[in-house]
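dude i think i finally got it to work??
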Amino acid sequence: LGPGALRRTASPARMKALPLATAVPWDDLERVVILSPHLDDAALSCGGLLDFLSTRQAGALVISIYCGNPPPVKNGDGSLRTLQRKGYVNPRLRRLEDRAAMHASNTDFVHLSFPDNIYRRSPTTDQFIYRHAHERWSSPRVDDMGHVEELYLVLRRLSLNLGRMLLVSPMGIGQHVDHTIVARVALRLAEQGASLLFYEDFPYVVNPTIGSGLHDDPRQALQRLDRAPSACLALPVNVDAKAALIGHYGTQIPALFQDEAGLREALQVRQHGGQPCEFYWKTRELRPTREEHR
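look at this
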C-alpha cells in the first residue's frame, strides 16, 4: 500500500461520531447478523465488532454469501467439468481460511454456496456476466437479477422472524458489484422489519486503488442506495487483535495490503478521538433537494 493512497482517503466523517457501544440496546437483541459478501469481508470490516460481541449475550452470526465452487459446465459429451479461472484462489482454500478465523473469534457462521461474480453466468446466454475486470466494479447487470432475487429469499429466511435482531451490511464503498448487491438486498430486508446498520467496506474505504481506482466514501456509497446518513457510530479497534484475525486469510493479504505491515498501516487510517475505529452508519431515505422538486 502506498502511504499517499491511504492519506487521500483518511479524512474524517463530517457527521459527529457517537459511540457504537452505547448506541445500540445490545442486551435486548437475540442476534446480530453480519452479511459478508466474501469469505473475508466480515473480518476485514467488522473484526472489532466481532471482538466486541464475543462478550455479549447477543452473539454474531456471520453469513458469508459468495462461497461456492465454480458452477460446473457441460462438455460436448454431456459430462460435467469445473473451470477454475486463472489468477483466483480456489474457493475451498478460502473456506478453510474463514473457518479458522471464525473459530478463532468464537463466531457462529454460515457459508452460502452462491458463486462469486467472476463465475456467475447469464441464464439466457450461458456466458460470464462479469467477464472483464472493470465490469466487477459497477452496478449489477440485468442478467444477474435472478440471482439477486434468490439471494433476497434466502437471506429473508435466514435473518427474519427470529426475534429482535440487528442486521449489519456492507454499504458498497468501492462499488464492488457483490457488495452492492448485498447492500441492496439488506435494504429490502430492512423494509420487512430488520434493524439495519451499514459498515464501511474495508480496505476500499482507505485505499481506492485496490478496487475501481476511483475515490469513494460513505456518503457517496449511501447516495447510490438512495440513502442519507442519520448517525455515524464509532467502535474503537484493537489493532493487534484485528490484524491477527485478518491474518487467517493469508491468500488475500498480498493483494490487499502487500504484507502485514501494510495491513497494520491500513487499520490505523480510520480514527476517532485519536483511536483506530470501525464506523457504522444508520441511514434514512434520501430526501429530494429543492431543485429536484422543481
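Residues 34 and 104 are 17 Å apart (CA to CA).
im so relieved honestly
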